[in-house]
Amino acid sequence: MPFHGHTKRELPKKGGKKAVQRIWVSIRTPAYLGEKHLSDAPCTAPEDLLGRTLEALLYDITGDPAHSFMKLKFKITGVKGNECATDYWGHEISRDYITSILRKGSSRVDAIFDVTTKDSYVIRVRTTIITRFRISTSKKRILRKGMVELISNKVPTLTLGQFAQEVAAGKVESDIYNFAKKVVRVKFTGITKAKVLRRTLQVLTQSTTQT
Question: For 206-209, which contacts have Cβ atoms below 8 Å and span 24 or more sequence positions?
Answer without folding.
Answer: none
